[in-house]
Amino acid sequence: MVVWTDFERTTIQDIFSKIDYAVVGQAAFSRCLTVYPWTQRYFGQFGNLYNAAAIASNPKVAAHGKVIMEALEKAVKDMDNIKATYAELSALHSEKLQVDPDNFMLLGDCLTIVVASQLGKNFTAEVHAAFQKFLAVVVSSLRRQYY
Question: What one-character-per-residue DSSP string does 67-134 give?
Fold first, then answer.
């Protein structure tokens, strides 16, 4: 069980209250598909993913980025039960979609970069640490079904 400090809880909730899910989701997911092109293999039905410009302007990428952020919002709303919150999503990605679980960490890294750029100087080392802890719990929960 993860123990959250009051600062961590407040920080995570504050971050998610300040960001635009559509903008941040699209930017993070686009970055992941561009920086780690092997992650594109799961999204063949998205059409043109041939270069950074095509990825950034792809409406299916934008839509999935928002879906990702909405899924993260579920974890924010139930920080004490993230593993149970993501049990079905973990099973889906493991059993049906067969997504490499390392990709969750890559997406988390891209999300951190985008959130840091959105928050600017407010993304202090302490805020970064809380956000990384949150993402580590999310990634661990998504990887749970793989073991």
Answer: HHHHHHHHHHHTGGGHHHHTHHHHHIIIIIS---THHHHHHHHHHHHHHHHHHGGG--HHHHHHHHHH
Q: What is the CA radius of gyration of the chain?
A: 15
Which tens digits make up the pLDDT trace of 97-140?
Answer: 677 778 889 999 999 999 999 999 999 999 999 999 999 999 88
pTM for this model (two decimals): 0.91
Q: How far apart are CA 146 and CA 131, in angstroms?
A: 24
Quickly count: other Cβ atoms within 10 Å of residue 69's Cβ.
21
Based on the number of CB atoms within 10 Å of its own CB, is 63 exposed (0-12), middle (13-18) or buried (19 or more)? middle
Whether residue 144 contacts residue 87, with contact meaning beta carbons closer than 8 Å, is answered with: yes
The answer to whether the CB of 65 falls within 8 A of the CB of 28 is: yes
DSSP 1: -
Residue 93's pLDDT band (cuts 50, 70, 90): low
